[in-house]
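Supplementary Methods. Inverse-folding protocol.

Structures were first reduced to a discrete structure-token string of length 430. This string, shown here, constituted the complete conditioning input.
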């Protein structure tokens, strides 16, 4: 297990994320990478130093602390520019990385599907490309006259071109994935099945909730970013309405922009959702700050205005009932649950049914015997209360989505007209 020293950068900005929460989250990220936090240093950076982000005296303190603790790496809580990372590494004398690299490493470890691996590699290359130049300072660089083009610059340009080509290829492959998703989405939309996306801060319990609702077996563990791949499962609500629940990658405070860009194909599921289930870990003392971070990402995706149900999860980890009552009062459109204990799943499903309630109607109608395809759709998309087979028609009593009710009504009217014409023809013959 690699021992690391955390350097928590404090810009002392008003309204910024609390420094204690940053330190705690960084420790969780290191744990997700199977690292061991040997120590933590708060490093003021107001104003930031151009060469090293934090000021020279603090850099020397970090170097001394790293030596005393015998760590193998120093991890900064803020993103470092290429030149800053190189300068810090030279002074400290050991591997120095930033929060973005740490998150990318977690993603690389957790990516399972081909799509997930493509997304992670794209994010890694997008992060690496602007930092290439610093790796060649010890080689000859391009000068101002003839004959001064050195091998360092040549290798730099070759590497840039190779990475650029690979990025283009990855984007093309992900575009193919997006087209495949679009085809599946259109098929679902033709069936008018509502999509309900689970969103929330990483480790809020989204995968556990999906398992609890649908009986799926999504891998879960107590840690950050355990789910990278979007997972969809069909489910029938108590009202007999069919829906699709979709799990998504967890969000995070100041989620690196490269990751949002790389995972847009997955996050499109959120953009096409009919309802968002915003899963919150109500046992986390900083749950209000975490909610703001999720809302910020949702705003970037332009989905903040979508119908949303707040799911206050992990109530079994909150021993004080007054805290739960206060949370319920603070978030009126919410439901208290424990996904792990499958507690109050009925309350959550009731709220979802309420949100979708206007989509279902009761029908009492006669369908021509020749339209058995509509009978199949009634069974697929609705709930049948009763069905009687008559001479030329089928008498159906069911609860169905509005679009199907309109189609059934049109078919029934045409069927009545057809029967009327047949009767007129019989009368004329006699």
């Amino acid at each position: 297990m690699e021992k690391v020293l955390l350097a928590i950068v404090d810009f002392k900005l008003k309204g910024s994320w609390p420094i204690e929460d940053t330190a705690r989250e960084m420790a969780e990220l290191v744990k997700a990478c199977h690292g061991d936090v040997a120590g933590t240093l708060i490093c003021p950076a107001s104003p930031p130093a151009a060469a090293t982000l934090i000021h020279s005296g603090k850099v020397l303190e970090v170097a001394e602390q790293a030596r005393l603790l015998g760590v193998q790496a120093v991890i900064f809580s803020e993103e470092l520019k290429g030149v800053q990372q190189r300068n810090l590494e030279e002074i400290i004398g050991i591997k120095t990385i930033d929060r973005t690299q740490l998150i990318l490493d977690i993603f690389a470890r957790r990516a399972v599907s081909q799509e997930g691996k493509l997304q992670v590699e794209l994010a890694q290359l997008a992060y690496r490309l602007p930092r290439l130049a610093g790796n060649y300072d010890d080689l000859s660089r391009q000068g101002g006259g003839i004959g001064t083009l050195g091998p360092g610059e040549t290798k730099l340009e070759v590497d840039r071109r190779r990475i650029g080509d690979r990025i283009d290829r990855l984007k093309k492959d992900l575009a193919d994935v997006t087209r495949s998703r679009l085809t599946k989405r259109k098929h679902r939309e033709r069936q008018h099945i509502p999509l309900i996306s689970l969103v929330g801060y990483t480790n809020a319990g989204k995968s556990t909730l999906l398992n609890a609702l649908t009986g799926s077996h999504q891998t879960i563990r107590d840690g950050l970013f355990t789910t990278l791949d979007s997972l969809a499962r069909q489910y029938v609500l108590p009202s007999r309405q069919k829906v699709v629940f979709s799990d998504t990658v967890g969000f995070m405070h100041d989620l690196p922009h490269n990751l949002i860009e790389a995972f847009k194909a997955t996050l499109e599921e959120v953009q096409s959702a009919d309802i968002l289930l915003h899963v919150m870990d109500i046992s986390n003392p900083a749950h209000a700050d975490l909610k703001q971070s999720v809302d910020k990402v949702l705003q970037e995706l332009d989905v903040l205005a979508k119908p949303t149900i707040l799911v206050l999860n992990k109530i079994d980890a909150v021993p004080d009932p007054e805290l739960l009552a206060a949370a319920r009062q603070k978030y009126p459109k919410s439901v208290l649950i424990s996904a792990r204990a499958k507690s109050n799943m009925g309350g959550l499903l009731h709220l979802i049914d309420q949100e979708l309630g206007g989509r279902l109607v009761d029908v009492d109608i006669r369908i021509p015997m020749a339209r058995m395809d509509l009978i199949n759709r009634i069974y697929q998309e609705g709930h049948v209360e009763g069905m009687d087979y008559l001479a030329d028609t089928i008498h159906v009593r069911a609860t169905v989505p509005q679009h199907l009710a309109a189609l059934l009504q049109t078919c029934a009217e045409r069927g009545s007209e057809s029967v009327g014409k047949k009767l007129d023809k019989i009368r004329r013959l006699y």
